[in-house]
Amino acid sequence: MAWIQLISNLAIPVMFVAIISYGIAVEVKVYDCFVEGAKEGLEVMIRILPPLVGLLVAIGVFRASGALELLTFALTPLTRIVRIPSEVMPLALMRPISGTASLALVTDLIKQYGPDSFIGRITSTMMGSTETTFYTLAVYFGAAGIKNVRHTILAALLADLTGIIVSVWICGFIFGWN
Following DSSP, what letter does each residue of 2-45 receive, concatenated? Predict the structure, then answer.
C-alpha cells in the first residue's frame, strides 16, 4: 500500500518533468508550445460554450416544468413490459441529457433505497452502461464544428436504450427480480 501511495503521489510530477526534459532534449521550445496549446484550448472553450449553455438551460426548463415526471408517468405501461422499475425511469430519461442531473438522481435513489437494494444496483449499473449523449454531442461536435448529428443521435440513443434495458435485466438475473 505504501508503494501505491508513493507512485500515486509522484506520477504527475514525474510525467511533468519527463515531458519538459524530453522537449528540451529534442530542442523544442516547450514554453511556446504550452502557450500555443493553452490558446487553442481557450478557442475550443469559446466554440463549445454556446451549445453547452443551451443544453444546461434546456435541462433546467425540462426538470422545473414537471415534464420529467409527466414523461415518466406516460412511459409506465411500456416500462412494465421490459420490467424497468418506475423508480429508475427519471434516471433513464435524464442520463442521456446530463451527467450532473443523473448523479443527483442516483444519489437520491441510493439514499432512499440503499446501495445494495435492487433499485440501487440498477441505478449503479445504469450509470456505468450509458452515456450523457447530448452533453457529449454538444461538447465534441461543437468543438469540431459538426452540425449534422442526425445519425449519431439515433445510434447513441439506441445504445443508451440498450444499456438501460440490459442494466435492468442483468441485475434481475444476477440479484433476483423484485
Answer: HHHHHHHHHHHHHHHHHHHHHHHHTT--HHHHHHHHHHHHHHHH
